[in-house]
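Model it.
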Amino acid sequence: MPDHALSHDPAVQAQLDRLWSLSPGADVLGLSRITELLARVGNPHHRLPPVFHVAGTNGKGSTCAFLRAMLEADGKRVHVYSSPHLVRFNERIRLAGRLIDDAALAPLLAEVLDRAGNVGASFFEVTTAAAFLAFARTPADACVIEVGLGGRLDATNVVHPMVCGVAGLGIDHEAFLLAAEDGTPSTPMARIAFEKAGIAKQGVPLVTQRYPAIASAAVADVAAARGAVLRARGEAWQATQRGDSIAYQDAIGSLEVPLPALAGTHQCDNAALAVAMMRHQCGVTVSEAAMSAGIRDARWPARMQRLSDGPLLRTLPAQPAQGVWLDGAHNESAAAAIAANWPGTAQTTIILGVLANKDAGAILRHLLGMAQSVSVIALPVHGHAYHPPESLVRQALDLGAAAATPAESIEHAFGLLPALPSPDRILIAGSLYLAGKVLEANDELPD
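Modeled.
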């Protein structure tokens, strides 16, 4: 499904409008179109700075944020390609440490679209080609590239990385990643692992987390078939939280790094994966001090982010004592991570919007267990196919919510809060697209 992108810059918006009219309107996984498109713009992916390539169901964006912060703490200039954007399309392309500006973005998109012709490239494929073209033309010390969807057939999988990483695994994007295909595993978790590990390359370290046995076996099979150098957690490297630090160890030696500022114990796993990727590559030198500084300083919007004072929060008659928190939490495993890290409260209110292709019941089952009493306000996710708020309300009540009501927008939801039991803490979750609307409404634009 394409990401609905708008820009306040007329020149950028003109190119985004062209992109909508030319792309097929839905992503069809495969590398033939991106390969042809990149050839038409001079194969920029062959001229990138050293590449860190990261896949995973959950945690890949945070892992990329840690990698970027570590590299920049060591004085490196870093390109980053990530998705989706939250508020501005520009968030997808970071050039040597700064989000691409509109003056550079508009002609870049125009150049790719002018050459796209009859390729039938998708929104993501055009964006990927534009990013790689920008990265090839702008000097930098490293590229951090996040997989968009899956891995094996994702448009980013044309790069030649110096290290690959696979973050957490879970069931998501079933229509794409579990579609019947000869020669692929039949068990869902094994198939997901097979697709994510598909970024593996001959002779390149493939650094992975600890997974259920069936997923680990699938990853190992892919690594062996592709001639990648598998570096699995629990075998090639170890990491354990000890008090206020993470104890990391591998064949090179051991080190101790601080806990991340990003909230949640799952972020310790993502930070450890970033350390392991950094330690198992040999293309870019980064000091241990820079790794520690990067973990401490990394920021990643809409991942257990406490909202700051802003226009949206000021509409509340009184803010909850433990704050208003924002997380994409767009699938079951992400919701489970939030629930595992949510402090015990007497009353939590959840403002929730869920895309139609997600398992809303599974998300709700995890989130409704976070407090003694949980109220739910259900929202649409405008511009996308979503679970109707009335349906989310029925599911929430059936699953034990203390109260549940529909709303038309995030502003409407905030207006309904005084009618519900007063919460100790509020969570806004269910979709990164909703998260983007919240950040925009509260004037907290990602930078």
